[in-house]
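Running co-folding for adenosine-5'-triphosphate.
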Amino acid sequence: MNTFLNNEKLKVENIKKNFGDTEVLENVSLSVKEKEFVSILGPSGSGKSTIFNIVSGLLKPDCGTINIDGKDFTGKTGRVSYMYQRDLLLPWKKIIDNVAMPLVLKGEKKKKAREEVNKYFHIFGLEGFEHKYPFQLSGGMKQRAALLRTYMFSQDIMLLDEPFGALDAITRSKMQLWLLDIINDLNASVVFITHDIEEAIFLSDRIYILSDKPAVIKEEIIVELPKKRNKDIITDKKFNELKKYILEIL
Ligand SMILES: Nc1ncnc2c1ncn2[C@@H]1O[C@H](COP(=O)(O)OP(=O)(O)OP(=O)(O)O)[C@@H](O)[C@H]1O
């Protein structure tokens, strides 16, 4: 009867987290459907990374639950992939071995792991760079390699914590277009943290607005823009109305 529940991948229910006397998450609930792109937008220090640490199992919430595909994963690691704000590649390893690392860590032989990741180099715009070292890549390429490594860890749910935050404006804009372009082929559900309202609207199907800490979800916004987007949409009336609305809430 309920189609939403049927294609729900991730469900975060009533999580609460204090660090000592500091109440960081007061009560946060959110959900992500199959192949959905959901952003979490909130002020600095509001607890966005803490939510990811809890969803990935690195931290235990004081209360609340994390369900994935209907199973309880509260406090359990290894199920979702997680890309940090500064997800550095190992400088002494070739790109192919950096990317293959999650598979090797899971017990795959190096040769097999390389074969497995090789087929994704084209889609991630890294073809021809398999045997280069990180210092030989541009900033955008390094982020694409880090994103591919994240994808190799777990392909169906990816947590991306400001992956483009450190890039210059032009590269960042190109990366947003690229991500939007490939995301359908990846069949992944994505949760994306950003401070950038335009980035959130441009990329997302839905946006959760987080309050200052102690954090609660202030609002859930469905981005009713065509799924296929290009940068022209930034001048669209609906896009700008949404941007103004979010600015007022934040
Ligand atoms: N392990 C920890 N121990 C103590 N306090 C912590 C810990 N982790 C986070 N905090 C505190 O919790 C609050 C939220 O931090 P968090 O990194 O989740 O925020 P954020 O929204 O991701 O911030 P930013 O946007 O600046 O990255 C901050 O006040 C931070 O100092």
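Result summary
The chain has two domains: 3-80+157-249, 88-153.
The CA atoms of residues 11 and 67 lie 5 Å apart.
Job closed.
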